[in-house]
Amino acid sequence: MTVTAVASSSHEEIYRVEETSVGLLGFIAIHSTRLGPAAGGLRMRPYTSEDEALTDVMRLSEGMTYKNAAAGLPLGGGKAVIIGDPAKDKSPEPLRAFARAIEGLEGRYITAEDMGMSPADMAVLAEETRFAAGLADGAFASGDPSPITARGIFNAIRTARAHKHGSRDLDGVTVAVQGLGHVGWHLCKFLTKAGAKLIVTDIDETRVKMAIAEFGTKAVPLADIYSTEADVFAPCAIGGILNAQTIPQLKTEIVAGGANNQLATAADAAALHDRGILYAPDFVANGGGIINVASEIRRIKDREGFVAEKLQALDETMAAILTQAKAADVSPAQMAIATVKAKIEQASRAA
Ligand code: NAD
Predict the structure, then answer these.
(1) What is the spatial distance between Cα 118 and Cα 142, in angstroms, rounded to a whole number?
(2) Is residue 197 part of a domain?
(3) Is the dihedral of CA 172, 178, 181, 184 positive or negative?
(4) In-domain check, residue 224
(5) Which of 90, 206, 255, 303 sits in a 20 to 30 Å window from 310, CA-based?
(6) Owning domain of residue 257
(7) Helix, strand, coil proportions of the chain in percent (round to 5)?
């Protein structure tokens, strides 16, 4: 296996990992270890080029630095990607080879599931490295993080509503949900239980049919979700969906969802702010999943207690960011980045 360092001025360490005998090519990026070992998932995607994969791993690992800091976790930011189609190219040998590269970093990077990876894949990685979390079995196994991610998003929606209207009550509030996968589905459950009305969309028509049957929800075609009349838009599918084309279409007063990297560019945060749309920053709203994984990384005995305490603190962080952003008349996304950067600086000075 060849592990080659990639030079970077923005990241602490980046490695290109290749094992041609098993068809493995991927990257590991450690953005920051200032708060602790860099933690973040492993993503497998059919990237069209090495450059695309490298750009993604760099962007995602920086995002993890902010997410872990916002969640109050003693973890830095890292991420890993493997180039390939998980449906066709995933097999134990390349995963084991990649795990050996992770092991070689001696704990500076800790992995878990991301797109294209399952707890079963983490179990394969764990055969070769001590630094794989998100396992289904074992003393501290934390399993599927998405119900906790969804709980955090549900809290973010309530906090955003309270910021706008003084009440966290969601009874009768309409939420447009994009994506009915692991996170979106659990979010729909929490919202329905709280009395919210749903409008949903998904590229997978089976998921839409299931949602109609399960939640009695309305459904709209994919492109119509942006212009749907609702109180809240909850993106729970892919990144980059808040952009120059979609933002002018929005008819909701709040955007709060679980997808990573919802803003296509930093300017899109300002565009939402200028339109008076309250945006709950994604890396704060969706921090529940990494909180759940952190309970495993840190070998916490009382996982439920740990998760509940951290989710509560995350909710308070979101409320503080929204309040401070309003006072400073800046976008919540801008305030959230400033808040976590200050946290990281403070921790570095104290160390
Ligand atoms: P998932 O793959 O289970 O679900 C995604 C769903 O979105 C699928 O049902 C898919 O068909 C649908 N979808 C894809 N493209 C779409 C489009 N253009 N329009 C409408 N629907 C579309 O993924 P997930 O685990 O639910 O994660 C959803 C998002 O949340 C991702 O951006 C992920 O990175 C982020 N996230 C997930 C977690 C977690 O705990 N799973 C944690 C943090 C962030």
Answers:
(1) 12
(2) yes
(3) negative
(4) yes
(5) 255
(6) 146-287+316-342
(7) 50, 15, 35
Are residues 191 and 118 part of one domain? no
Q: How far, in Å, is the centroid of ligand 1 from the Cα of 202?
A: 10
Q: Which CATH number belongs to the domain containing residue 115 in this structure? A: 3.40.50.10860
Ligand 1: residue of 57, 144, 151, 236 to mutate (most ligand atoms within 8 A of CB) is 236
Q: Report the distance separating Cα 152 and Cα 41, nearest Å.
A: 18
Ligand 1 atom 1, closest CA = 181
Nearest CA to ligand 1 atom 31: 259
Question: What is the mean pLDDT of the segment spanning 64-68?
Answer: 97
* 210/113 same-domain check: no
pLDDT of residue 292: 96
Residue where one domain finishes, among candidates 93, 126, 159: 126
Q: How many domains does the chain have?
A: 2
Closest-CA residue, ligand 1 atom 8, reads 181
Q: What is the pLDDT of residues 269-312, one digit of tens each?
A: 999 999 999 999 999 999 999 999 999 999 999 999 999 999 99
Atom of ligand 1 nearest to the CA of 184: 26
Domain assignment of residue 331, yes or no: yes
Place of tokens 């990297």: 261
Per-residue pLDDT band for 75 (boundaries 50, 70, 90) equals very high
